[in-house]
Amino acid sequence: DSSQGAELYDGFIAAAVAEAPDAPSGEGRFLGFSVTSLGDATQPGLWLETPLVDAEGPGRVVAENGRILVVMLRPSGGTRGSGSRLSLAGFQALGLDLTALPTLTVISDA
Question: How far apart are CA 37 and CA 84, in angstroms?
Answer without folding.
Answer: 6
